[in-house]
Structures are given as structure tokens and as C-alpha cells.
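tool_call: predict_structure(chain=1)
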Amino acid sequence: MRRTPDRLKELQGTARNDRRHAPPRPPADRPRARPGLPRVVRLERARLITELATMPGLLTRADETILELTAAALAEYHQAVRVLVEQGASYECQTATGSVMRRARPEQAIADQAWRRAVAGIRELGLSPAARTRIDVEPPAQPPHPDSLASFRAQRFFDKGPTIDESQASRQARQSL
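tool_result:
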């Protein structure tokens, strides 16, 4: 059974100070790939990192192992599905008596197991819709951008428009063209 996040407990009204959970916060950093990873696993890993990078403060070096295992499961799943699409979901073989029997390809079981592992890893990384609601990551505080909409509106509010001298200068500039 998974632990209920503290924010959900607060919303439900069941939060207690003696049961607060303060998870360790490893430094946010991009995990490094282990040398020798197959190309398909590296590609899946890069895709996962790209998705995780959209949520600031979520990706840490502590996620290297789960990231690699999830990427390997996704690569294995895609490879098994590719075989199933190309060769079909079943194959024919002959029994000892000589009759033809159709069997499911082993890639179906491989795809099923890889799918389960991939979904479990995606859930642990916080990439599933249900898992995102349980994530308790505070994004780093950033000062407002000087070109933000709020600063633009503030300038327009306090800016009284062009003065008479500015409008006359702009008319003269247009007439000289």
C-alpha cells in the first residue's frame, strides 16, 4: 500500500503533525547514463529525461537506476511489439501426430511483462496522470521576468502616453520621409 501524500491529507482534513513525512531532497541534477547502455535504451532514457525535465525539481541523480530500468523496459516492450506487428500474434507448428496447431508468440508474454515493468517505472517517476497528483515538489523560486505581462501592464498604467513634444517630433519625422 502506498503512503498518502501530505497535501492530500491536508485537503481531506486528516493531517496530523506527528505523522508528517519529510522526504529526503537529493540535489536536482540530470542523471548520467551508465556506459555500455544499448542505443535503444539510451534513446528511451533521453525521452524520459525530456519529459521529466518539464517538471522543475523532480529529476535528481538518485533517479538513475529507476530511469535506466524503466527505459530498458520501454525499449523491450517496443521491440516485442515490433516483432508482433511484423510477424503476427501467433505462429503455426505441427504436433507429434502431424496436425497443425497455432500458438501465441513468445513476444506476447515478453511485451506484457515489459509493459507492466514500464508502467510501474513510469508511475514511480511520476509520469502517469495519477502519479502527478501525488508529486510534492516545490519548483525553485524565480524572480519575475522583466518582460513579463505584469511589468508590461504596470508600464502602460503609469505611462500617460506620448507628450506633445514627442507627437510633434514623430509627425515631423514622417513628413521628412
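agent: Residues 25-138 form one domain. Proceeding to next step.
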